[in-house]
Amino acid sequence: MTLKTDEFYSKADALIAAGRFIDSKGWVPATSGNFSARLADGNIAITVSGRHKGHLQRDDIMLIDANGQSLDGKKPSAETLLHTSLYRRYPHIQAVLHPHSINATLAARLFKHEIVLEDYELLKALVGIDTHETRVTIPIFPNDQDIQRLAAVVEDYLDQHGDIHAYVIAGHGFYTWGASVADTLRHLEALEFLFDCEIRLHGVKKA
Ligand SMILES: CSC[C@@H](O)[C@@H](O)C(=O)COP(=O)(O)O
Ligand SMILES: [Zn+2]
């Protein structure tokens, strides 16, 4: 049996608190969303599949290895591969958060392939950005119930375009990441604000 360390519980508690905040904003309705944080030994603390992300308890955070295999007999998020592929690719990523927000969902209907964010002061909440005079592109990928195939589409995009701050999955939600749960939560909140601005600016087209 794998021992859950103090580090595991500290990161689990950070994910639980993040979930409460994200839910308070209405960004993870009806058990949607998933969250994870990497541990020093390379294993990952991740939400158990199907739990309400606004009401997480320590029992709802489990341990997987870097390949997404359960280490404690629990069932990890259905979208685990989207987390593990980011951790594998980027050693600096320590947390991944996935909300299902109205703004990400509507933005994907409006923009189809990518959301371009520029001339917003709040872009500086994203790591590595120190001026509003920056153009940030958030790609939109088609939704897919085959998560392995979806992870491959993301990898392919990253191979061709280099680093990004987040991606949207059409009709679904978005993924963002960072060097800690706090950094990732800041990215999530900033992107939500920026998606909201773009939707209000460009309007919502009829389907
Ligand atoms: C309740 S619909 C949302 C799910 O299909 C999925 O997209 C999701 O984000 C949550 O799945 P989970 O397996 O709990 O991590
Ligand atoms: Zn999802």
TrEMBL record:
Q: What is the main EC category here?
A: lyase
Its annotated pathway reads: Amino-acid biosynthesis; L-methionine biosynthesis via salvage pathway; L-methionine from S-methyl-5-thio-alpha-D-ribose 1-phosphate: step 2/6
Enzyme Commission number(s) from the entry: 4.2.1.109
Domain Class II aldolase/adducin N-terminal: residue ranges: 13-199
Query: Gene encoding this chain?
Result: mtnB
**Has the keyword Protease been applied to this entry?**
no
A Pfam family for this UniProt protein?
Aldolase_II
What is the stated purpose of this protein?
Catalyzes the dehydration of methylthioribulose-1-phosphate (MTRu-1-P) into 2,3-diketo-5-methylthiopentyl-1-phosphate (DK-MTP-1-P).
Q: What is this protein called?
A: Methylthioribulose-1-phosphate dehydratase
Query: Which InterPro entries does the UniProt record give?
Result: Aldolase_class_II_sugar_metab, Aldolase_II/adducin_N, Aldolase_II/adducin_N_sf, MethylthioRu-1-P_deHdtase_MtnB
Cofactor(s) listed in the protein's UniProt record: Zn(2+)
According to the record, how does the cofactor bind? Binds 1 zinc ion per subunit.
Name the domain of life this protein comes from: Bacteria
Q: Which family does it belong to?
A: Belongs to the aldolase class II family. MtnB subfamily.
Give the molecular function GO annotations.
methylthioribulose 1-phosphate dehydratase activity
Q: Which reaction does it catalyse?
A: 5-(methylsulfanyl)-D-ribulose 1-phosphate = 5-methylsulfanyl-2,3-dioxopentyl phosphate + H2O
Keywords (A to Z) from UniProt: Amino-acid biosynthesis, Lyase, Metal-binding, Methionine biosynthesis, Zinc
Query: Which positions does UniProt annotate for Zn(2+) binding?
Result: 98, 100
Q: What is the lineage of its organism?
A: Bacteria, Pseudomonadati, Pseudomonadota, Gammaproteobacteria, Methylococcales
